[in-house]
Amino acid sequence: MPLLDPYTGPWTESEAAHLARRAGFGASPSEITALVGGGAATDMEAAVDSLIDYDPVDAALEAEILALPSTTDFNNIKNPTRISHLGGWWLYRMVHSTQPLQEQFTLFLHNMLVSEYTKVQSGITNNVNAGNDGSDPANQVCATGTLPPDPNRKRAILVRMMRDQNNLFRTGGHLRYRDTLRSITRDPAMLIYLDNRQNVKNRPQENYAREIMELFSMGVGNYSEDDVREVARAFTGEGLDQDCADDWPYAYEFQGNRHDTNAKTVFADVFNLPGPGQDTDHVIDLILSKVSVNPPHASLPAASIFLAWKLVTWFVNEDISITDPAVLELADFLANDSSTNGYNYDFREAMRKLLKSSFFFDPAHRYTMYKHPADYVAMALRTLGANDSDYTRESSNNPGGAQRVAGMGMTLFNPPNVAGWNHGTAWITSGNLINRFNYADRVSKSSILTDAYCDGLIPSLVADEQDHAGMIEYFRARLIQTALRPEEVTILQDFLTGVENSAGTATQKYRRKIRGLAHLFMTLPQYQLK
Amino acid sequence: MKRRDMIQLGLGSLAYFTTERTTPNWIIRSAEAIPNPGGENRILVIVQQAGGNDGLNTVIPRTDPVYYDPNTRGSLIIPAGMEINLDGLNGFHPKLARLANWYQNGHLAIVQNVGYPNPNLSHFTSTDYWERGSVPGVPLPTQGWVARFYDNTCAGMPDPYALQMMASGLSDVPDSLEGTTGYTTPAILQASTYALTTDSDAALRRDAIAALNSIATTDPRIDFLQRSESTAEASAEDIAAAASVAVLGNYPAGTFGEGLKLASQVIRAGFPTRIFYVSQNGYDTHANQVGPDPVNTGDHQELLDAFDQALDAFLFEMQTSGNLDRVLMLTFSEFGRRVAGNGSLGCDHGAGNCLMALGGRVAGGVYGGQPDLTDLIKGNLKYTVDFRAVYSEVLEAWFEADPTPVFGESYDLSGIQFIQGVSSVSGWRLY
Hints:
By secondary structure, chain A is mainly alpha-helical. Chain A is 51% helix and 3% strand. Chain B starts with a helix and ends in a 24-residue tail after the last helix.
């Protein structure tokens, strides 16, 4: 198993920066220095461990958020009341997290275990705002309990559902995937998004049954259409209650009267288990154990291969094929974690193996991935130590950070379809690039690169207002982290000379140089890569 | 000459790409370099209905008793008499009233029973087949079917036009248009934000950005990024010009309507764009396809209403601007849906389906026969018309190009010749 053997090459700034770009949202030079430590193999291991062994709750981050001043934007982040706030709520975490892999991994899972908020929203009845006393059978909000009128309840329910799902990924998503799959199957937003709350015996429907196998575990081709129909039967009755007593009419509930109690046959296994949800858990175990139909991997569970491939293409190189030997090695590692109950798929240990491997640090994989829109924004703000002044604004002419990310093709909480975003080259379309470059322009404004920020670079990071080489190096070390092309240096110097030769005081021109360089660096082809 | 000055040289006569990796790879747009195209410069608008449209509730087989069997279709049935009769055998969903007028005027063709052998019921696998013009059992081509046609037909052309193809109302490029050699297709989600902004030192910054993105490179990723920047910068001015063209039609809200609206503006602004791709999402109606009133409630009638409104607005603008004979719209969806309904007022993934072609040179009518609701495979409609035959009709009759190299085989088009009255003299010319 040579590819995933521990990396034994040099442990320098270059390798540490690669780790930080992939297993987080990049790192500033001082953070990279800390990751390098003494430059020994044990320092590499400690750096990877420090990223992977994160706490379920980033206490430092939550304390920081609570201490934010009471601006409209920060209030939206502290207590999101509309779905449009939630993207900023998350983006702020990506920028400020002290456990950056936690947020990158949450995004990985969000992109695999998709729920689009637009459909979840349309699946929440408008009647919840009117409320009712449970006596009107035509108004199906409450089967039991009562619900007082609240004009904002529907949007509050949507925010809570999407945030709860996100926190499911955030707190334990990096642990055993088997548990995650059990949880997401009963997650209210998912039960609405893939319709399983309406999956009932006699005329079952296949939406969740198909997608859990095709997109959440095994990949297309490893199950038959008959399997889809039988899994749908096994999932009948996994639904949501309409008990309004707790003011929350969308809690998970197993509805035995809607569950098909006849024998089901999935992958030739015949079963009908008596307890609530037991059929579902059994199906998940069957799915995670089903051996691949693909000849190169025929001895391994299909899910181990598919999930290994998902990890590798998100964290190492999106061009890697599912038949790559490294994928097979990681699949084999994932499949080693099993018990009598079946395969657990411990993502944390798989990530530890992957991120410490010679495969991960292979120079051939560096700068091979296209940054996704959240990377594009968060890496700039993190490495520059700058803060966006507005993450949640909905205005069309000056939208906030999350809306900017949406303009680049990534509406957080609303992937385009159940397969998630196309990544790789799909991020780099003309329209998405325009929105990237316009965010670079936004970063260059005095609201983000403030006068104090610019002036504070002198003299420790930039010698003086005419130190053009120092200014270029400042941004190179943060935004690019590899060598600039000679032509680029010339063009950037010409730009600085142009500003120097224009009107204004030395201080004014200096600030325009810094801000202009931020804009230009974020339009460099190299900055689109990670 | 500064790049900025070159970009100002002339709209409508632009090239955005080179055919090989050279410096500069952003495009010198020279009005003189591009001859004025002759002929009709025919246009294809591909309309995706993403998610798997229920063809049986779009084009209703109004004389088929199986359709009206409550044990099969259940709540999904559009009650007899509510549909809009087209030809006696078929009726449109009541929300397709505007398109029914286009049918009656002879500008709308329906092709029934379209599909492919061994259908795959995954959205994404089946969409791959439709977009790449391929079927199960053979290696999936890396290029889309339109891209292959484009590369075949344009081989050796000296200076192709700008905005030759565009994805309108989308933030990513669909696979149908993906993979054209040397060309990065613009994707424009909305015209209003498709413009580069610059805070201070605008001229200095713009010049620097252009220069930074036009450095000779052998790195394929850097090259791709630089090309994409060139496409973005060059197309942004054209889109701004197009967006000022007056909107005459009544488009529905949302990115689908916006996409068709912008396509119409680009056409009416006189840009030589030949291929447009628009997409309407939401057809995966496992649940709540219909509500308590199957005609006026539920998700499907809402989708069809917007579909009807958007296509009608677009065709109206084409007609009033004298472009209707230049335009062909072709709809597709990755699969039809299960004939029988499920227990949640919807239906699951199916196979065979219908599609539509619309335009001034479309010979209206119903092609491909009637769907057989009794001879099913696992509850799904069989196909009798290979979708690649439909594509071949478009390539052969509309673009006067040989479809065989695109699909690797040829098809019998005798029953699906829905394009008629096209003069072979004034047809497709790329240059």
